[in-house]
Design brief:
Layout lengths: L1 H11 L2 H32 L5 H5 L1 E3 L4 E4 H31 L5 H15 L2 H15 L6 H25 L3 H9 L4 H12 L1 H17 L2 H6 L23 H11 L2 H27 L13
Antiparallel strand pairs: 1-2
């Protein structure tokens, strides 16, 4: 055993191992350098455009103003509406597939369909939303049309993450609860879903990131209006067109206003960094086999 230990320690210092270690550290350093370089460039170009007026006004050629207040509101509406549609369907579908449906042919077909949907380009979703939700259902260019389209896009992401989170829960939780005579739905609601909560929240946060960063699909469905409605128009806002931050960035670049475009890029970059920070917090707080406390059986 002592000789084997010497041999293993000698192998760790061999040239191939040292080369592989250098490649790994080089790739990690390059990733950090690219992130810092991109973030530094965007902030250096767009930081001067950030001001209170930039966040509180809308872009108007008649008034000569440049702002993202309307786009912020539209992004918030799109995100809330999409999650309200996709999260119940995604989590409920994952619970059914993982806990009730078994491993039959239908389940494999549904899982294959979700994987195919996850790989479809967003512009295809946009064309479908324009034709089906916009023309066939009469929603036209509206935030609701965009939310329905984005719900189809992020649904596979939520389903797959929820399935993986449920499968990570130890089987003993299920067997123990069912062996004590607990109804299956009560066991799912009080034990499985809380135990899988960190993984489900991770999937939802990833979906939020895709919603906020999407532009191609919304160009065909939600439109690009920048209007900021009054208090009475907030309830009607989902049925009206509206451009999000990502779409406004594209339009500002197309119009040649690079200062405003980089300013929006700063806002999106800060949001992306905040979202990744929340994901890291969720992952560090995730402990496999954590049973919710004070749950009656």
């Amino acid at each position: 055993m002592k000789g084997k230990g010497v041999l293993l320690s000698g192998r760790q210092g061999s040239p191939p191992d040292a080369f592989l270690l250098a490649v790994i550290y080089g790739a990690a350093g390059l990733s950090v350098f690219l992130l810092l370089g991109m973030a530094g460039y965007v902030f250096s170009r767009g930081f001067r455009s950030l001001s209170l007026r930039f966040f509180m006004t809308v872009t108007s050629e008649l008034k000569g103003t440049t702002g993202i207040a309307g786009n912020l509101l539209n992004t918030l509406y799109i995100t809330v509406l999409t999650l309200a549609l996709a999260v119940p369907l995604g989590v409920g579908g994952a619970v059914y597939l993982n806990e009730y449906a078994g491993r039959g042919r239908l389940v494999r077909l549904v899982e294959f369909a979700t994987e195919v949907l996850a790989g479809i380009p967003s512009v295809i979703f946009g064309l479908f939303g324009m034709v089906f939700f916009g023309n066939a259902l009469g929603l036209g260019y509206s935030l609701l049309n965009g939310a329905l389209t984005l719900a189809l896009m992020v649904l596979p992401l939520i389903v797959r993450n929820t399935q993986q989170a449920l499968r990570a829960v130890p089987e003993g939780y299920r067997n123990g609860a069912l062996g004590m005579g607990v109804p299956k739905w009560y066991m799912i609601r009080t034990i499985l879903l809380p135990a899988a909560g960190p993984g489900i929240r991770t999937g939802i946060l990833l979906a939020v990131g895709r919603i906020v960063g999407e532009s191609a699909a919304l160009m065909f469905t939600a439109g690009s209006a920048r209007l900021l409605p009054g208090w009475k128009g907030l309830l009607k806002k989902p049925l009206e067109p509206g451009g999000t931050l990502a779409l406004e960035l594209y339009l500002q670049m197309e119009n040649g206003d690079y200062g405003a475009a980089f300013g929006i890029g700063c806002v999106l970059l800060v949001f992306a960094l905040l979202l990744n920070f929340l994901l890291k917090l969720g992952q560090t707080g995730k402990t496999e086999g954590h049973l919710p406390e004070n749950q009656p059986y």
